[in-house]
Amino acid sequence: METVDRDEIAARRHRAVKTAWVLGAIAALIFVLFILSGVMKS
Amino acid sequence: MSIEHTQGHEHESHAAHDEDHDHKPTGFMNRWLFTTNHKDIGTLYLVFALLMFFIGGAMAMVIRAELFMPGLQLVEPDFFNQMTTMHALIMVFGAVMPAWVGFANWMIPLMIGAPDMALPRMNNWSFWILPFAFAMLLSTLLMDSGGPAAGWTLYPPLSLQGGQSFAFVVFAVHMMGISSIMGSINVIATILNMRAPGMTLLKMPLFVWTWLITAFLLIAVMPVLAGAVTMLLTDHFFGTSFFNAAGGGDPVMFQHIFWFFGHPEVYIMILPAFGVVSEIIPTFARKPLFGYTAMVYATASIAFLSFIVWAHHMFTVGMPLTGELYFMYATMLIAVPTGVKVFNWVSTMWQGSMTFETPMLFAIGFVVLFTIGGLSGLMLAITAADLQYHDTYFVVAHFHYVLVPGSVFALMAGAYYWLPKWTGHMYSEKWGKIHFWLSAISVNILFFPQHYLGLAGMPRRIPDYSTQFADFNMISSIGGFIFGASQLVFVGVIVHCVYKSRQAATGRVWEGAKGLEWTLPSPPPYHSFNTPPVIDSTTVAHAGEAH
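Structure tokens for the assembled complex are given below, as produced in the milestone run.
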């Protein structure tokens, strides 16, 4: 059984939170761009 | 018989390692409302999805009862329209999608050797948004202006002619979207960051792969739907004219935006089904999955193609010939990676040592009946033919073949496959098989005649019809009632398995099962894989497959 030390666990959690922020920002950006494209067209 | 009664202890060391960590929170509120445990949240999603399946199913029964005979029998036409709209919204967003998220929550951490989802508190939030979203959506049925009645596609100008309750619908869709996006973020963050050492991407089980790709699809398209319904909201209540032709807007633009979301949405519901079937068939054929790597690439190809074919839903709005040709050929291209998948499932079964327990029956039912839905999709892709089929019952038959004996059968297959793992008890194989055969026969009685109705010209979304369509409608309704009733057997099997079954499940449950989830006891401890497992050939499902 392989062990993962506490630093590695902390680093993974940090990476997971960073991944979540990046993906959330992409989702928000798509939403805003679609609305904006509609506003620009009209 | 592949149930393994004596084995399953070879990896009990994992369980032993997790000893004394089974600290379930006490009290109903702590256990379920505030839970951050992936297994509990998975259970919540699955129970919620089953409840929505029956609410949406009850609406389908109203629809089929009204269509049992020509003429207006039971409900007013406007209420009939509300039923078709709500049935679709609830089945898509309330039943199928949350059910897959429930499977993801339960199985992804167990399959990749992670202790939990990467963002457990957000996971809790993702789920608990849903009951409020659907309470809000369903409440519109009790309002003066009634529920949404323009179809799940919410096309303007019809959808803008609804009453004040439309704001509730839009807000409910926003909440569902936020829930889906947060769930997807969690799935991606978990898969990319929480895999056990040695669990490389190409060692992941197919179900994990299909969910990773599905999660990216969701993040890409749910904001598009949110943007579209926000613009509908402002058109309805704030005097804008995004889609209002009288104010210079373009209603057809809504259709483009909606289907840019809507077509990938179809694959969001079916890709995890591909994953589940790719887990089950090798187990009961007792062979590694044929062409694992090809399956991964085929899944990714289908996901990519889903973004570039949206206008095949709207050939009749009028578009340049080059546009029609492009969308026709691009749509047909999807048959290639899908064909790879069907070929690989059949090849996995070929010369396998097959047994036919309930999960395998549902998986084989999926392969056969989903293929029928796929082939009628190819017919609809032909622009010239689609001009005839469009908005007829042929389309209804097509997408129900893809979604019911497709996605829903895969959900049933997965539920039977992992139920012993989740509960620690075996379900009744006899009643499982009765459930399968009742469902498989009745679903064809329900949907196959609808092909003929469509080809004969019966339009969708009508409460009354010409007498020439009477016979096939009656047959279809009888099939619908039997299919609806047979799902009560499913509930009976689950309740019996959870509360009454005396047959304990072993860790591995199925003789041919491979993968990390089977190295844990059944049910798995409340906190599992606190120490990462070792990844070797006994824990990789497709061991032996060169890639």
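Chain A has one helix and no strands. The radius of gyration of chain A is 18 Å. Further analysis is deferred to the final report.
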